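=== RUN LOG ===
request id: a7f3
mode: sequence -> structure
chains: 1
length: 177
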Amino acid sequence: MSAKHLMPEVNAAVERLLELADRMKYEEFGFLDKDVVNIDKVIDSMHELEKERRGAHDLLETETIHASILRHKLQFLPPSIKSEIKERQHDLEGDYSTLLPERISASKEHEDIIQELNEKMAEKAGLQIVLNETRDQVRQTNQNIVDLEDGILQLKEDLIHERTEARHEKRNLNNLL
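=== RESULT ===
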């Protein structure tokens, strides 16, 4: 990272650390090379911290701009939202007044259809009752016919039996005379 992009305070600290590293390289102070490398690590860490600080600063600026935009919207949008709501409400009321006669007509038509359907259902129920009664009468009439046929058959048998007895009696009487 170049020294131009760093804050002046960080630049000054890096320069002092570099001077310290140069002094530490001389044997008269007794520092080892690894001690000098540690100063390089400190400088790298300072660069990283500066990079993080700049990122945080940029983020803060971005968030500040967003907050400013939101404050502006809070100040000026509520009236525009209210006017938009009023406009939409006016449109909906117009639609309602336009659709109301159609709704009333559809409701009346629906009631008429329901009334007609109820009448047809009542008529059907009445016809079903008449049909059931007619079916019962037909069954009873058929039963009466069967009973009459049985009665006629019984009468014929009885008549045949009486004729036979009458013939026997006539023969017996004729034989007696």
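=== NOTES ===
The chain is about 90% helix and 0% strand.
The mean pLDDT is 88.
=== END ===
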